[in-house]
Recover the amino acids of this structure.
């Protein structure tokens, strides 16, 4: 713990605030990219029922990827093509995105599938057009599951983003790797604790956001996911 | 008016759901499609608002063919009520009811005012407005479904098994209220049900469909009971046809009502004995409303509520022959209680009086 409370470690390019900042930038960019890919895809598969095999097959296969191995492979493949730091940033982001896509994709799909078919039929029968059914009924009703997918994706990204440091990119992983190299266990513990705290903080933040944006009409329901993957219980709060 | 002209729905695998259907649902009337499962009744209903497109034939809405219309705009002209209500779980009750006015471009505030009025109309307390669908029972949700369909004041309504997902007691209550509502609003309604009793109770006219999507008979409820077109209809309409057709026969003036001596609660055993005819005496309250029957010989001291036998039903003098006969058959004294429209006792009738009246006039005037 000494490392954490030494003021010298809280300033400068290698200071803790800077490392946290780097860590967050990688994490949030990766999450944003993953969401941009997985949410529309999940909606499309959920609404049309086309490509369901992707959910069971691809999404679960992606989960099983060994992140460090993939990272090194990608660096070997990609970095020669880029003279700059980009050759290292890109592989890290790809690994993080690949990790974050499955939970978001699966939960978005499951969320859309779990929307009460009678509500969708009623909306259609009352003269809602396809887009309006999506925006007014299917999306709001699948929001709890979708957000829980985002939440587990973000947790996974934050904890895995430590590997960016493995290819000298900074972030809180630096404390782990430098600490290991210097046999400085205090530094390693500090890194681990900070990653855990960061993850917890964002988990709570997303839980808070979920409570704010999800209709109280939905939060008392136990939503069972249609996909084999996650069964998520929505907390009975609010 | 909604009109089917030679409408057929065939699926690529060769299944014919609806086969050459001609049907006319007159303006302001409730037309019921009834039949066993697989008879195409729901398919027929869903072809009206084009949730299913007909393979051939034309459906007219007030003489305009629906095929040329924009499907979404067509649906907005037609109220739509389905079996499990299909409320939006993420919206409050008042916002659910306000759905159609908002969709048609009214301001949310004005739409909510309309919604509150409609909630009252279908018997939902105003404090339900801010609740969510999961907080309501099935019957209450169904009322919300009806209110939602009425909120845009559409000329037409389609109802797909609207009352089948609730228990029999609530169902009867919803049916009665709906009948009353329909008498006020007079919408052109097509309702689908598999329940012949519901069809006979609610319908101005009933279309019986048979498996394969053909119309077997289109008639008023009493015609269905008294002159079914063929063995299928007769069988589908079911047993007890004779008894049930009495439900469409008016009592008014056909059966002589005898006077009945009565006592009130608190009367002595002797007093009850003096008024009794046979073993039973009828007990009424201060406003001459029947409370039940009592056996004077079982009363020790004075007549109390616990002495009452409540098994007898009562019939109104303006009601149907079926209620009257039931009142006589269910009464422990075998004398059926007849009351006026405000529930005050007129007198009693016996089953044999009723049967005599039925025999004397085999073609009694029907109730509707």
């Amino acid at each position: 713990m000494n490392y954490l409370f030494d003021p010298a470690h809280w300033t400068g390019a290698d200071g803790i605030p800077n490392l946290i900042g780097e860590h967050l930038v990688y994490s949030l960019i990766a999450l944003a990219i993953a969401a941009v890919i997985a949410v529309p895809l999940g909606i499309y598969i959920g609404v049309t029922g086309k490509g369901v095999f992707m959910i069971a097959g691809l999404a679960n296969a992606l989960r099983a990827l060994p992140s460090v191995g993939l990272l090194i492979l990608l660096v070997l493949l990609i970095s020669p093509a880029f003279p700059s730091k980009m050759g290292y940033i890109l592989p890290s982001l790809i690994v993080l995105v690949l990790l974050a896509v499955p939970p978001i994709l699966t939960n978005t799909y499951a969320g859309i599938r779990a929307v009460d078919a009678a509500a969708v039929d009623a909306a259609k029968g009352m003269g809602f057009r396809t887009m309006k059914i999506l925006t007014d009924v299917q999306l709001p009703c699948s929001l709890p599951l979708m957000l829980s997918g985002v939440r587990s994706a973000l947790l996974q990204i934050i904890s895995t983003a430590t590997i960016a440091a493995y290819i000298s990119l900074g972030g809180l992983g630096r404390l782990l790797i430098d600490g290991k190299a210097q046999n400085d266990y205090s530094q390693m513990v500090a890194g681990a604790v900070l990653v855990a705290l960061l993850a917890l903080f964002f988990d709570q933040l997303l839980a808070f956001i979920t409570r704010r944006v999800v209709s109280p009409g939905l939060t008392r329901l136990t939503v069972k996911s249609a996909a084999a993957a996650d069964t998520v219980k929505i907390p009975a709060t609010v | 008016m909604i009109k089917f002209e030679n409408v057929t729905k065939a699926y690529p695998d060769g299944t014919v759901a609806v086969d050459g259907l001609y049907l006319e649902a007159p303006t302001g009337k409730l037309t019921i499609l009834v039949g066993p499962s697989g008879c195409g009744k729901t398919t027929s209903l869903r072809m009206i608002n084009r949730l299913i497109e007909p393979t051939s034939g034309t459906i007219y809405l007030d003489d305009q063919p629906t095929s040329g219309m924009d499907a979404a705009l067509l649906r907005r002209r037609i109220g739509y009520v389905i079996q499990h209500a299909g409320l939006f779980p993420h919206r409050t009750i008042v916002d659910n009811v306000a759905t159609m006015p908002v969709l048609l471009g009214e301001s949310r505030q004005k739409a909510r005012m309309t919604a509150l009025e409609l909630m009252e109309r279908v018997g939902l307390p105003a404090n339900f407005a801010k609740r969510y669908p999961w907080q309501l029972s099935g019957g209450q949700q169904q009322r919300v479904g009806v209110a939602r369909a009425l909120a845009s004041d559409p000329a037409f309504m389609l109802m797909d098994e609207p009352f089948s997902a609730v228990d029999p007691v609530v169902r009867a209550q919803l049916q009665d209220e709906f009948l009353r509502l329909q008498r006020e609003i007079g919408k052109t309604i097509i309702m689908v049900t598999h329940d012949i009793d519901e069809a006979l109770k609610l319908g101005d006219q009933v279309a019986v469909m048979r498996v394969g999507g053909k119309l077997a008979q289109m008639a008023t409820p009493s015609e269905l009971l008294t002159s079914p077109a063929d063995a299928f209809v007769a069988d589908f309409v079911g047993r007890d046809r004779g008894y049930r057709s009495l439900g469409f026969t008016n009592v008014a003036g056909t059966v002589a009502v005898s006077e009945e001596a009565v006592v009130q609660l608190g009367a002595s055993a002797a007093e009850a004995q003096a008024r009794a005819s046979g073993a039973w005496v009828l007990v009424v309250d201060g406003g001459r409303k029947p409370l039940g029957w009592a056996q004077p010989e079982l009363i020790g001291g004075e007549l109390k509520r616990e002495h009452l036998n409540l098994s007898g039903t009562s019939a109104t003098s303006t009601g149907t022959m079926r209620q009257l006969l039931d009142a006589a058959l269910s009464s422990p004294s075998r004398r059926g209680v007849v009351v006026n429209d405000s529930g005050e006792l007129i007198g009693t009738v016996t089953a044999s009086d009723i049967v005599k009246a039925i025999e004397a006039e085999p073609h009694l005037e029907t109730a509707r």
